[in-house]
Design goal:
The complex is a heterodimer of chains A (614) and B (240). Chain A has a 6-stranded mixed sheet with strand order 6-12-11-15-13-14. Chain A has a 5-stranded mixed sheet with strand order 2-3-1-4-5. Chain A folds into 4 domains: 67 residues; 89 residues, Glutaredoxin (3-Layer(aba) Sandwich); 214 residues, Rossmann fold, CATH 3.40.50.11540; 77 residues, Ubiquitin-like (UB roll) (Roll), CATH 3.10.20. Chain A has 614 residues and is of the alpha/beta class. Chain A is built from 26 helices and 15 strands. Chain A is globular, with a radius of gyration of 26 Å. Chain B is α+β, with helices and mostly antiparallel strands and 240 residues long. In chain B, strands 2-1-5-3-4 form a 5-stranded mixed sheet, with helices on one face. Chain B is globular and about 55 Å long.
Chain lengths: 614, 240
């Protein structure tokens, strides 16, 4: 008994220390929870009263945040938590064998922990390694190109007492060096162009040049480039910065959206690994332009292995007086901190990201007001994608006119494609906007391509044949960077069903159409695949898709039906083939055996009872 | 000075710039159904039932500040009307809404809006989920079968002393669940409990002491429909 009291006392002390680290600031709840999670492997109930008192939040309010995020657990979740990415690309590359081997080796079923509490096995959405699947995280360490043999080896070593870090990384490699990341994952750049991955940038002279200009001149230069935001929505960056600069408020914020969650995308990971200072300097320029002294990088927790490297890059800039107080002797000060996410796709939506940055569940906000007026902590905020900030650095170096001359009229410059799936060379490609789909397929060595999922599940699935001449740009085939290729052997409907499962898992649940409707779309896809759907079911799924698309609150719900709608448009025959005609009075989807199961069971139970009574 | 003219269902309406569309419509005798919206409270935007066509684009009217020249279609847009109805139908399959045995029947906004949108049966498959009730607090019975996640209680019913949340939503997506903080709930005054129960648009937050204060068959029902109430409130607020 006294031992238990001691433990509770020790926990209280530890939590008070953590709270002190963040000045008991409730906006830092995600950091506080991560620190607790890192000690205990979950958020114990016993921690809630201390947190509640210090943060002036009710216990259920704290649990609201804890339970929202995939990587937070509220009960013991194993000493080592293994998260296997269940993406469609992984499923094309030996996912099932890896999953089974993990279960065998750990003696643990997925979604649970083993008896000894050593392992917890969980599936997770895309972790940004589509060019090297199957891949898994063991907490903060990542393992790629998995095979049953590799998995057996890893688990055996853990059982022998080694940590995931020791298994993956030779002692000589420091976690703050790029060698650490390079040792864990591949960063394959097949084609770089004029904008990204330049190694010869003189950041000091660039920033010094920028600080000589008036902020409005910098914004004018960006506007002249006509660059549009690279998160996918395509809002003109220059205009966003100008509006934020004009917005009332002393305190303003710059946020870099590094929550790269769109399945199939990994370009931001590569940028943060190969050109982190392009991104950081882009943020500094943003801070100078809008009049802000604080930047936040919202980094998805799947990329924890990049964090220390990134912090080291921030420190290097500070050492050169390019970041921190009075940058290069000027009156302009700017600091950047990293905010770790905790596993939620919807937090890639800019207003959900703001909520998450403030330590809340990632519910996309009602708009208006927009972040430029009412963003982080209610202050005017610009939120831009990693790629946008990196491009801004190059635009500031080479000029808006130079950048604007590339690409097409409505989509200027270049963009990074994360190519994965059935092709010879999966990896990163910098392309000039205006290239056709067919040209990309040729470039990456995609033979026998049947379909391409452009922009991930929230984008379009197009036929490689029908869309061959479509142009990659905002006004035709818009692309947020994700480019997944499927050849003739792939089951498109299986992929669609996986995507619908993804949206069901990732919906925040705040609005009716997305929370409820996506479940129905997912179920209907299962029915179609099982050859139990009629033409009416097919008509229904189209009309339901339209309802969800038109009435949902944020981009997740307005795009979630797109896997169904776009494949139905491009490949109607694969749906028709599955459709059956109703025979007799029962719907094909009606399962008579299942319907009678309860009755049968009750009957059995009753006869057993009677037998024992006699 | 800030006066603007908008068109709703072909009718020209003079109003003030920045006013909320749903209010303007109701004030002018055009009913738009709502479930989460409460006039004079911050917009929640969770139910989407007030979605109407604004300049050819469907959008929830509780989030739209009116602007000059706006063209709005409510009843005239049959597809939009059907979508509003579909959202109500989704709620009926997501939870277990058994009106005849519900304490809130007759005063339930979901039920009323179901009638207003002419819902007969849901087009979506019923799920009959199994939900756990929470009856641990002294005065509140939480009937999770009926929660529609409008967030009214989460945002507007707070602990008087600390302003902490008494209600919250745990998990996410289809696993979302309404939660109640028992300690704080037990601190609530009976007036606040009544306020929470009244504010709940469905029979999820039930006042334990007077759930069936009138037996079924003996209850007096609202004589005003939600439509009349919405339109009347607006008229009244116009004159005051």
């Amino acid at each position: 008994m006294s031992k238990k009291i001691n433990l509770v006392f020790k926990m209280k002390q530890e939590i008070l220390d953590i709270l002190k680290r963040y000045n008991s600031n409730r906006a830092r709840l995600l950091d506080i929870l991560w620190d607790i999670h890192n000690i205990y492997g979950y958020i114990p109930d016993e921690a809630l009263p201390t947190l509640s008192e210090a943060l002036n939040m009710s216990k259920i309010d704290i649990s609201e945040t804890v339970s929202f995020y995939h990587f937070f657990h509220d009960k013991p979740s194993g000493k080592y938590r293994i998260y296997l990415a269940d993406t469609v690309i992984a499923k094309m590359s030996g996912f099932q064998e890896v999953l089974e081997t993990l279960e065998q080796e750990t003696k643990c079923p997925f979604g649970d922990t083993d008896v000894s509490g050593t392992f917890g096995l969980y599936e997770t959405s895309c972790i940004g390694l589509s060019d090297q699947e199957p891949a898994m995280l063991i907490d903060k360490v990542v393992f790629n190109n998995l095979t049953p043999k590799k998995v057996t080896n890893i688990i055996t070593q853990i059982k022998a007492g080694k940590t995931p870090l020791e298994i993956s990384t030779p002692k000589a490699i420091k976690t703050k060096d790029v060698a650490y990341i390079d040792n864990l994952v591949q960063t394959t750049i097949y084609k770089s162009g004029p904008v990204f991955f330049k190694s010869n940038t003189n950041y000091k002279s660039l920033l010094s040049k920028c600080l000589d200009f008036h902020p409005l001149e910098i914004i004018d230069n960006i506007s002249e480039s006509n660059i549009k935001g690279r998160g996918g929505a395509g809002f003109p960056t220059g205009l966003k910065w100008q509006l934020c600069r004009e917005a009332d408020g002393e305190q303003k914020y710059v946020i870099c959206n590094a929550d790269e969650g769109e399945p199939g995308t990994f370009k931001d990971r590569i940028l943060l690994t190969r050109s982190p200072k392009d991104v950081l300097v882009g943020m500094i320029i943003g801070g100078y332009s809008i009049g802000s002294d604080t930047g936040i990088i919202y980094l998805r927790s799947e990329y924890w292995y990049i964090k220390e490297y990134l912090e080291n890059q921030i420190q290097e800039l500070k050492n050169e007086s390019l970041l921190g107080e009075n940058i290069l002797g000027s009156s302009f000060s700017f600091n950047i901190r990293i905010q770790m996410g905790a596993g939620s796709y919807v937090c890639g939506d800019e207003t959900a990201l703001l909520e998450s940055c403030e330590g809340k569940r990632g519910t996309p906000r009602v708009k208006p007001p927009y972040p430029i007026q009412n963003g982080y902590l209610g202050k005017p905020t610009i939120i831009n994608n990693v790629e946008t900030f990196a491009a801004i650095t190059r635009i500031s170096e080479k000029g808006g006119k130079w950048y604007g001359a590339m690409g097409t009229k409505d989509s200027t410059g270049t963009r990074l494609l994360s190519v994965s799936g059935d092709c010879e060379r999966p990896g990163i490609y910098e392309i000039e906007w205006g290239i056709t789909l067919g040209e990309v397929l040729k470039m990456v060595g995609a033979k026998n391509a049947k379909a391409v999922q452009v922009s991930g599940p929230s984008g379009e699935c197009v036929s490689a044949k029908l869309a061959e001449n479509r142009i990659i740009c905002y006004s035709d085939l818009s692309c947020n960077g994700s480019f997944m290729i499927f050849d003739e052997t792939r089951d498109i409907l299986d992929i669609v069903e996986s995507f619908m499962h993804f949206f069901v898992e990732e919906s925040c649940g705040i609005c009716i159409p997305c929370r409820v409707g996506n479940v129905d779309l997912h179920n209907m896809m299962k029915r179609i695949r099982a050859r139990k759907a009629t033409q009416k079911d097919l008509d229904d799924i189209v009309s339901w898709s339209k309802i969800i698309k038109s009435t949902s609150r944020c981009g997740l719900g307005t795009t979630s039906p797109k896997p169904i709608l776009t494949t139905l448009d491009q490949f109607p025959e694969i749906y028709k083939e599955k459709i059956v005609v109703q025979k007799g009075s029962l719907l094909p989807s009606f399962d008579m055996d299942k319907a009678l199961l309860d009755h049968d069971n009750a009957h059995k139970e009753l006869s057993n009872k009677n037998a024992t009574n006699e | 000075m800030n006066s603007v003219i908008i068109t709703i269902d072909g009718k020209k309406i003079k109003t003030t710039k920045g006013e909320t569309l749903v209010d303007v419509a109701n004030k002018n005798g055009i009913y738009i159904p709502t479930l989460c919206y409460m006039k004079d409270k911050p917009c929640l935007g969770t139910c989407r039932v007030c979605s109407v066509k604004v300049n050819d684009y469907l959008i929830s009217s509780c989030t739209v500040p009116v602007a000059d020249g706006m063209v709005v279609e409510v009843e005239n847009d049959k597809e939009g009307a059907d979508m509003r109805k579909a959202l109500i139908e989704l709620l009926f399959v997501e939870g277990n809404h058994n009106c005849p045995s519900c304490e809130k029947s007759g005063r339930c906004e979901l039920q009323a809006v179901g009638y207003e949108t002419n819902m007969m049966v849901s087009r979506f498959p019923y799920r009959f989920p199994v939900n756990e009730r929470d009856y641990a607090s002294d005065n509140i019975w939480l009937e999770r079968d009926r929660c529609i996640f409008c967030q009214r209680c989460v945002e507007f019913i707070k602990d008087k002393e600390t302003n902490q949340k008494i209600f919250s939503i745990s998990n996410r997506g289809s696993k979302s669940r309404i939660e109640i903080d028992i300690d704080l709930a037990d601190k609530m005054s009976l007036e606040q409990v009544a306020e929470a129960a009244d504010m709940c648009p469905v029979g999820c937050i039930i006042n334990k002491n007077q759930g069936f204060n009138k037996a079924i068959g003996k209850r007096k029902f609202e004589i005003e429909t939600v439509r009349e109430r919405a339109l009347n409130t607006q008229k009244n607020s116009k004159t005051t």
